[in-house]
């Protein structure tokens, strides 16, 4: 049943019967089908998609745009896997450009935030054969001893699959050990594209789609929420993007354990797929919009600004996005090394707030679980000492 008037652009006689039906479904809060998702990618123009996605964003999140105060730790870029799109990893035998932080260096990074109001540390890296489950469990414990209040969002399903396999424990056992040592949630990386044929072409040796989904389902059952990503804009077709979203939507129906969906644009700098062109900004925005329309059971859609750039992140806020990630503090190299325009990704809270206000949205600092920390609508920065 239609609850709101459909804007005139959607009733435009020039749009097809199918697009009108989809618009009616969206306004009636009805889920769209797989075929309708593919049709949106094939036939939906930017203005039409943006209009629908913006409506959903408003319904779900009002005028709020979320961000957090966070930093990353990337313990190593040495990796046993060889994903064709990855610009940042190095094989064990490659010395050039490889790094491996010691435990003390990692803990010093955490100590460097003493007195600063960060709320989340995001830990991911290459899959190093010598850094195992108990090494990371003890590392998290030590991080929590230094900073008991910080939320530890750590390890992609790719890292977790390898850790559990090496330690000869089930996913449930491995995740329980990490949880008991202080890990709070999982980031969304490693999902790439679930379609088995495309996955084989771009990252054949790491965890399968089924394993990725099983690890996230197991985490959700243990009370550890997670995020989900999708790597788009390479060799996949529209139906592969919808298939990917469909598998995530089905798991979310089952567990409701995902916090946010994060489309990740393939960046072509310095990797084995550099011969592929990157997709246009129009395609980025269309992809955010279709994601917002298709993923009806995800509360949030994130534009990760170090990957997409701050200008496109701002634009995405009119195409369904309600979250732009956080302060970052120049602590991640994944996208710098893949050729992103953000070569030293760091934004102060004040800069994030200004970015959001500039497009007439309400800046909300959140914690990892989207609890509101500060509403910056009428905030006076001149009274604050630490604004990082
Ligand atoms: O899984 C690697 C991607 C991911 C490239 O959960 C690339 O809040 C594009 O998952 N072009 C890791 N993408 C990053 C990630 C993430 C980032 C921000 C926030 C969250 C979250 C998760 O980065 C990998 C892979 O999909 N990636 N290389 C590249 N050249
Ligand atoms: Fe390793 Fe992750 Fe890079 Fe793949 S994307 S090569 S698993 S660091």
Describe the protein's architecture and organization.
There is one protein chain. With 388 residues, the protein is an alpha/beta fold. It is built from 15 helices and ten strands. The chain has helices at 8-11, 17-27, 34-43, 46-61, 103-111, 133-146, 157-167, 171-180, 196-203, 209-221, 238-255, 281-294, 305-308, 310-316, 349-358; strands at residues 64-68, 70-73, 120-123, 151-154, 226-232, 258-265, 300-301, 323-326, 362-366, 372-375. The strands form three sheets. A four-stranded mixed beta sheet has the order 8-1-9-10, covered by helices on one side. Helix 5 (103-111) packs parallel to helix 6, helix 7 (157-167) packs across helix 10 (209-221) and helix 10 (209-221) packs parallel to helix 11. The longest helix is centred in the middle third of the chain and has 18 residues, at 238-255. The radius of gyration is 21 Å and the shape is globular. The termini are far apart. The mean pLDDT is 94. Bound molecules: ligand V47 and iron/sulfur cluster. Ligand V47 is lined by residues 85-87, 156, 187-190, 192, 227, 229, 231, 262, 264, 266-267, 271, 304, 325, 334, 338.
């Amino acid at each position: 049943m239609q609850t709101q008037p459909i804007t005139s652009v959607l009733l435009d006689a020039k749009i097809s019967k199918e697009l009108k039906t989809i618009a009616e479904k969206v306004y009636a809060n009805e889920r769209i089908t797989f075929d309708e998702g593919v049709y949106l990618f094939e036939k939906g123009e930017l203005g039409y998609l943006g209009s629908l996605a913006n409506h959903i964003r408003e319904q779900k999140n009002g005028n709020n745009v979320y961000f957090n105060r966070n930093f990353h730790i990337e313990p190593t870029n040495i990796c046993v896997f060889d994903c064709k799109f990855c610009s940042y990893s190095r094989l064990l035998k490659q010395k050039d450009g490889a790094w491996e932080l010691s435990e003390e260096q990692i803990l010093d990074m955490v100590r460097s935030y003493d007195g600063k109001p960060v709320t989340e540390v995001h830990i991911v890296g290459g899959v190093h054969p010598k850094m195992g489950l108990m090494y990371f469990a003890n590392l998290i414990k030590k991080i929590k001893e230094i900073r008991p209040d910080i939320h530890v969002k750590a390890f992609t399903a790719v890292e977790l699959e390898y850790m559990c396999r090496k330690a000869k424990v089930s996913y449930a056992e491995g995740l329980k050990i990490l949880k008991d040592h202080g890990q709070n949630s999982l980031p969304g990386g490693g999902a790439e594209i679930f379609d088995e044929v495309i996955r084989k072409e771009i990252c054949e040796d790491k965890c399968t789609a089924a394993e990725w989904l099983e690890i996230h389902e197991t985490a959700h059952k243990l009370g550890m929420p997670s995020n989900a990503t999708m790597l788009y804009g390479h060799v996949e077709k529209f139906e592969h993007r919808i298939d990917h979203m469909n598998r995530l939507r089905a798991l979310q129906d089952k567990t409701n354990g995902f916090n946010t969906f994060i489309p990740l644009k393939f960046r072509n700098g310095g990797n084995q797929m550099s011969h592929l062109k990157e997709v246009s900004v129009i395609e980025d925005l269309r992809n955010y919009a279709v994601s917002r329309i298709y993923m009806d059971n995800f509360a949030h859609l994130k534009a990760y600004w170090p990957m997409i750039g701050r200008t496109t992140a701002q634009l995405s806020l009119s195409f369904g996005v309600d979250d732009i990630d956080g302060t970052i503090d120049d602590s991640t190299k994944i996208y710098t090394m893949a050729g992103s325009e953000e070569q030293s990704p760091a934004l102060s809270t004040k800069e994030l707030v200004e970015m959001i206000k500039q497009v007439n949205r309400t800046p909300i600092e959140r914690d990892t679980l989207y609890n509101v920390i500060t509403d910056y609508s009428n905030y006076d920065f001149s009274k604050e000492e630490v604004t990082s």
